[in-house]
Amino acid sequence: MKIMKKVYLETFGCQMNVSDSERVATTLAAAGFEMTADEGSADVVLFNTCSVREKAEHKLYTRVGQVRNSIGENGEIRAKPIVGILGCVAQLEGETLFKKADGVDFVLGTQAVGRVARAIEDVENGKKQVADLAAREENYDWMTSPAQRHSPYVAFLPIIEGCNKFCTYCIVPFSRGRERSLPATEIVRQARVLREQGIRELHLIGQNVNSYRPKTLEGLENVPGATAFSKLLRAVAATGIERIKFTTSFPRDFHADIVEALNEHENLCNWVHLPVQSGSNRILKAMRRGHTVESYLEKIDRIKNSPRRIALSTDVIVGYPTETEADFAETMRLFEYCQFDSAYMFKYSPRPGTPAAALTDDVSLAEKTERFLRLEAIQKASVRQSLEAMRGRTVGVLAEKKSARAKSEYSGHTACHKVVNFYSEKAENEVLGTIVPVTITKTKSNTLYGEVC
Ligand code: 5AD
Ligand code: SF4
To answer: What pTM did the predictor assign?
Structure first.
């Protein structure tokens, strides 16, 4: 009997990386490998990496060191597994990773991940320091297999890869290359397959989903909408998948027709993620974001004034080079105005090779931390308010997981992407994967609690 080689795959960073990892696992399983959650027993250890901030990159080097020097349960030194680095750090560092992180056997860039089985084979055949940073193969298979997805009920579907925006602080255009949109016919085909496989919630993902621009409008010819993206939203809505979410949206390309589509189709979920990055026009210009505070707020007002209540979330960076107290005060003011349902907040982190990295990082770490905490306090109050507003309401919750702590406790998301915990006495297989009507009774930090009604 052939012994299956075991692969442990660890993923850092964004949903795009989670999605790439699902495809890597799908490819490897088809090539006869067994995916394992137990790092200690793995023959191959893979890291799918993130380079968006310095912290994630440092973590990778720590993890490679741990794998290299792994000690078994009885104190024995374990044979080193084959170690492969995939994704953004691999793309940016290439062969220098072999010097920076001792013990790395191969490096696969963001578009080379589909060739992972071949890279492992090359190393097994004695090749040293295998590096592949080339473009995607022609016949790349975008479909993930159910067994390798992060959830049996929620699926990620990349509709656009890469980024053309070149915000001055951001490494993504370098790590993921130019924007490439998947044909609409392929997206709709996959959405249908996912629905048949039991997926209840589909996330259309991309660095900037609303910059979606396929080579042709094939498949969207007869769909209403002013832009390719809103046409696509409607076409995917027509597949009948119960919930469709999309992230991330780029403010400059966020047009009225997206809100219109959300109002027309109940299964397009009422949640928009629109990163603002700063509330100061001077800083936004320095970042080359392509939007102003005024143009951003116009979009926020449109979303907030929509007939359907739409939840809002954002990303923000504090302490960009030259950010003054006055600039930061404008960010706080914008947050007070927008009352985001949630926000991802980051301290500016210089990324080598980006235009901003050439500037003096003149906001001290202490100052960044101080600003971060002040903004966080404002945001926490918004979150509290947005959760409190849910109390007493009955909402549909997709039961995604059983709680590890409490018996009969489940956890999942609302259509507006809030986490809800609830109790149900029903059998697990009757609850998981269904959309349960839950009345919200309690709120706690970032979570809602409720009872099945
Ligand atoms: N420093 C801090 N935060 C960053 N982001 C991107 N690049 C940087 C950086 N150099 C944040 C932005 C982006 C999110 C994914 O990460 O807010 O929207
Ligand atoms: Fe980075 Fe700007 Fe592209 Fe977002 S839009 S990935 S912040 S360059």
So the answer is: 0.95
Does the structure show a pLDDT above 60 at 1? no
Output the ligand 1 site: residues, CB below 6 A: 52-53, 169-170, 275, 277, 315, 317, 346, 348-349, 351
DSSP per-residue codes, 374-443: HHHHHHHHHHHHHHHTTTT-EEEEEEEEE-SSSTTEEEEE-TT--EEEEE--S-HHHHTTSEEEEEEEEE
Distances, alpha carbon 391 to alpha carbons 209, 382, 395, in Å? 32, 15, 10
Q: How many CA atoms lie within 13 A of 282 on its CB side?
A: 11
* Candidate of 50, 207, 249, 250 to mutate for ligand 2, largest count of ligand atoms within 8 Å of Cβ: 207
* Predicted confidence (pLDDT) at residue 12 exceeds the cutoff of 80: yes
Is there a contact between 225 and 233 (Cβ–Cβ < 8 Å)? yes
Picking from 16, 30, 17, the residue whose alpha carbon sits closest to that of residue 141 is 30
Per-residue tokens: 340: 């985001």
* Rounded distance from Cα 170 to ligand 1 centre (Å): 6
The amino acid occupying position 85 is I
Please name which ligand lies nearest the alpha carbon of 284.
2
Can you list the domains of the chain with their CATH numbers? 6-132 (3.40.50.12160), 146-388 (3.80.30.20), 394-452 (2.40.50.140)
Q: What is the pLDDT of residues 74-85, one digit of tens each?
A: 777 778 899 999
